[in-house]
From TrEMBL:
One Pfam entry name: PAS_6
Domain Transcriptional regulator DauR-like HTH: 200-257
Protein species of origin: Providencia stuartii ATCC 25827
Residue ranges occupied by any YheO-like domain in the UniProt entry: 58-166
Protein's name according to its UniProt entry: YheO-like protein
Length: 263
């Protein structure tokens, strides 16, 4: 004989209570998520006024904008953004013709996205990314965050290279002009002592091969050449030079004084 099961009865008020509690918990969770995101935005772009130090830090990057543009060439746009006012964030720009931007232009949405990505990865440099300018030119870019002493991001340095510029123009920017003097070999020493020693040896060879310098004047000429190269700005360089030339420190000082006085 089969047992008959009693039909299951559900309390309607209980269902309403459960649904309400579930909905209440979901809303609370979403609210916390939104608040958390808002808090993140505030950390990245807060409304605190910039200090004098903040302005000085950003000002110091203006020379980097000009220097990078001069090094890389006219096919590369360099933009310095201040996050103090996003409506006119561009405070320094080089080669802005690629995007049509100028000083006072607003920040881009992509730059802000790069800022958020760097914050998530705890990095100061974004990954390289590709965009298209209004002209349709393909750009390869990277964004660098500029922080103050409190690690607050106060600016962005954006480097945008136009990949649609003819390759011949890019190569031309890296080749010295025919009439331009090429600087002699640079001494990439591993330490300051090595720098002094290597420069000293090179200068000795340089003076020794100069037939216009008499043997009695060679040491003096070596000292003068080193002085013109700025070697004596390095601490203890005079001692190294004196030991190598087998003369006293006082003699080195004497040669330098004579050079300064025009003797």
């Amino acid at each position: 004989m089969k047992c008959r099961q009693k039909p299951l009865t559900i309390n309607a008020s209980l269902v309403r209570l459960v649904n309400f509690r579930t909905l209440e918990g979901w809303c609370l969770k979403m609210s916390n998520s939104v608040l958390s995101n808002d808090h993140s935005d505030i950390n990245l772009l807060n409304n605190e006024p910039f200090t004098q130090t903040d302005h000085e830090i950003l000002k110091s990057y203006e020379a980097a904008v000009d220097g990078l543009a001069m090094l890389i060439g006219a096919h590369c746009e360099i933009v310095l953004h201040s996050l103090e006012d996003l409506k006119c964030s561009a405070v320094r720009i080089a080669n802005g013709q690629h995007t049509g931007r100028k000083i006072g232009s607003p920040i881009t949405d992509l730059a802000l996205r790069m800022l958020h990505d760097m914050a998530d990865e705890e990095s100061n440099v974004s990954k390289a990314y590709f965009t298209k300018a209004k002209s349709g030119d393909l750009m390869k870019s990277v964004t660098i965050a500029i922080r103050n002493r409190n690690q607050r991001v106060i600016g962005l340095l954006c480097i945008n290279m136009n990949l649609d510029v003819p390759f011949s123009e890019i190569i031309k920017s890296f080749v010295p002009e025919e009439k331009q003097d090429v600087t002699s070999d640079v001494n990439f020493a591993s330490s300051v002592d090595d720098l002094v020693a290597q420069t000293l040896e090179y200068t000795i060879e340089e003076v020794s091969s100069d037939r216009n310098v008499s043997n009695n004047a060679k040491n003096k000429q070596v000292v003068l050449n080193l002085y013109e190269k700025g070697i004596f700005d390095i601490k203890d360089a005079i001692n190294q030079v004196a030991d190598r030339l087998n003369i006293s420190k006082h003699t080195v000082y004497l040669y330098i004084r004579q050079f300064k006085s025009g003797e």
